[in-house]
Structures are given as structure tokens and as C-alpha cells.
Amino acid sequence: MIFKFSSGLYPLMLGRFFILLSSFISIRIITAYFKPNEVASISIFISTVIFFYILLISPLESYFHRNLHSWKDKKFLKNNLKIYLFTTTFLSILSFIIFFLITKYSKILFSLESISIYLFFFYLISFALSKSINSFFNILGSQKVFIILAVLWSYLAIIVPIILINSSKTSIENWLLGQAIAYFLILNVGIYLFFKIFNNSKNNYSFYSDNRLKNFVIPIGISNFFLWLQQFSYRYILDYYNYINELAYVFSGFLIGSLIVSGVEVINTQFLNPKYFQALEKDTKNNYVNVWTTYFKTFLTTMILVLFFIFLFYENIGNLFLDKSFYEAKKYILIGTMIEILRVLFQVNVLGAHATKKTNVMILPYFINAALTIILVVFFIHNDKFLYAIYSLIASGLIGFIASNYALYKQIKFKQIFKLTKNIISILILCLVILLFIKLTTGFIISVNLYSDFIILSISSLVFLISLIKILVQGEANLSKIYNHDK
Length: 487
Known about the structure:
This protein is 81% helix and 0% strand. The protein is mainly α. Helix 1 (9-33) packs antiparallel against helix 8 (244-279), helix 8 runs antiparallel to helix 9 and helix 9 (285-321) runs parallel beside helix 13 (422-441).
């Protein structure tokens, strides 16, 4: 039967649908309310916040993900969360100081001159901590709390900014302040619920006493720095060379593609990661190979599905979720999708390195990826080859993925990761044929209104989601089989 699967997937899919819908609503609002140069400034601000988050805070968050189950069993959660909150606050203050010095003494962030530096600090700490706390609920199996908070997180980040803009004035500062307030509200609710649910603390054990902490987080921080360069440096280059309008269109198109890909990625990780980390508890190299290979194949299959779906329907997606003044951005949706898929598969390789706790092996692939991105984009932009610069992001992402795959292979010697089972191939083929049929039979419809786009996307999305469910259920079953076999 099509719908014979774990009940845990129902709320995950529903929650992710509402979160994805809120993101698309946000894009529609931003492209309707703000001019291209203002949208470009928003993209630079968010990129800067993400820089400090993934460089300083995300590595510690990853360390927590790897140890949460063990700490829960030993009743170390409560005290370690308090230390995490203190540490993250300190790192946010450090980021604020660095941001202040950069904006005061350099012109790198000249697009953000009109935005308060205090807003940056408030936005960073609210965004980072709320995101971290909520991810802990998912890893620890409290999926209902995770989903509810994630949905509230997304919609409050639209509602509060709209209230501020309508009650004051339409400005990017009010929009960003509204989002920061929304994140801060969710952060406080998350902390309260975490201490209420996981309130049994055995002693005052601190993760600072773990000798492996530095060796785990420092390589991740370095790798994340190169990842950020690969994903976001092009925005600063376009800004520097005064491609302001182009940056706004690229940002909007890329964002739609990446939202769909990352939406599927989050469903994958929310559904598979608890089983994945649980299966890794048997600490042997052979187990790492089996667990990670199964995990990778599931991700690869879903990414093939996403690529084909967006390839067929990106025009309809753009019509629905972009304001007419930003229709120029539609041509960048597919490019952004391909770049994001390569990032996701790269990150699956990184998670394989996390399993062996040898995170330093990914530093070189990250460096290759980042260096190629900057060199190629600067070269083409300097020579007025704008589209070539955008296409080069795909090339650097592909080379980076290959490098990461090779680095991981030297650690765990996996085999045949691109060889899919007959069952999975049959699901893919059936879905692709149905989606292609929908596209061909509706191809005569000229989208003169949003209604036709909505109908086409509704039907095709239903087919896509059913196929995604079948693939994920198969992947979870395979991980469970490995875990139960090794018990």
C-alpha cells in the first residue's frame, strides 16, 4: 500500500509543508514590498548573519547533535544546555564586536550602513539559539514539539515584520527587526520546554571536559568557513562590482530553488537522522560503511526526484511565488536548485566524516570548493560575463562534491553508492513518467493567471510527495534493519 509507513512521517511532512509555504509567502511579500536594491541588502545582511552562525556556533551545535543521546542516557542534558546557552551568547557578543569593526573601518559591508549594528547582534543570537534549541528536540525524539516550534518560527517571522511595517514604515530594518523578535519569542518558549521535558540532571558534568571537543569543532568551523565562501561569497562579489539588481534577482531565484531542496533535505534529516545516529552507536568501521551508504543512497534518490520536479515546473513555481516585478528571477530557480543539491550531497559526505569523528578530512574539499567559487566568479564578473559567473557556481559545487566523496572514501572504503535498488529505481521511474505526463498534458496552458499554475503544481506536488514518502520509508527500513541486525 502507498501509505503504509511510520506515523512519525505524517507530522514531519505536514509541518514541512507549512514551513515551506511560509517561506514562499515571505519571498512573495519581500519582492512585492521592496525594490531590487533593498532585496540585495537583505541578502547581504542574512549572509553575514549566517557567516558568524556557521563559523562560530554551528560547530558546537553539531557536537551536541553527536552526543545528545549519550547525555540523555547519562542525565547530563540540563547542565550542558546551560553551558551551551552561555557559550553561544559569548560567541554572539564576539561576532557583534567583529561586525562593528568591519562596518566601521572597511567598506566590505557598505550595503548594510543603514542597518543598526545592535539589530545585527539581536538577530544573530535570536536566530542561532532558537535554531539550535529546536534542532535538539528533533534529535532527542520530541518531534511534535520540534514541528510546532518550527512552524511558529516560520510564520511569526512573517507576521511580526508585517505588523511592524504596517504600524511604522516600510523598511528593511523593520522587516529584519520583526524577524529577530519572532526568533527571540520562539527561543524563550524552546528553552522553557527543554528544561521542562529534560529536567533530570544527574550531576554537573560539562562537555568542556571532553578532550575530543576541540578536535571535533575546530575542523567543522574551518570547513564551514569554506562552505560559506562557496555558498555566499558570490553575493558580496556582485555587490562590490555593482550588480545590485542582478544580485536581487539571483538571490530571489536561488532562494526558491534552495527552499524546495532544503525542505526535502530537512524532511530527510528529521525522519532519518534519529535512526542514523542510533545505528552509529555500534562503533565499528564496517557499521559506519553500511549505515552511511544506506543514508547517502536515500538522499541521492530524493535529490534526483527534486531536480526533475523543478526542471519541469520552475516556471509555474516562479509565477506563483514571485511578484511580477521579479519575474526576471525565474530563470535562476533551476540553477539555484542544482547548486543546492550539490551542497546537500556534499553535506551527506560530511555527516559520514562526523560518524567516524574525523571531521578534519573535509577541510581540503571545502577549501577546493570555496577557492574555485571565488576565482571563477571574480574572473567572469571582472570580464563582464555575468551568466558565466552564475553557471560557474554549479561547476565548483560539482568538483567540491567529488573531492568530498573521495576524502570520505579514504576513511570508510564505501562501495557502489550510486547503485540504487530495483525497488527505488521503479519508484523513481514511475514518478518521473507521471510528472512528465502532467507537464506534457498541461503544456498547452498559457499561464495568464495564478489559478492554472496553482492547479498544475497541486497535482504534480501530490505525485512528488507520494514518491518521496515511499523513498524515505524504504530508507528508514534499511537503517532499522542494520541497527537491529547489529544489536
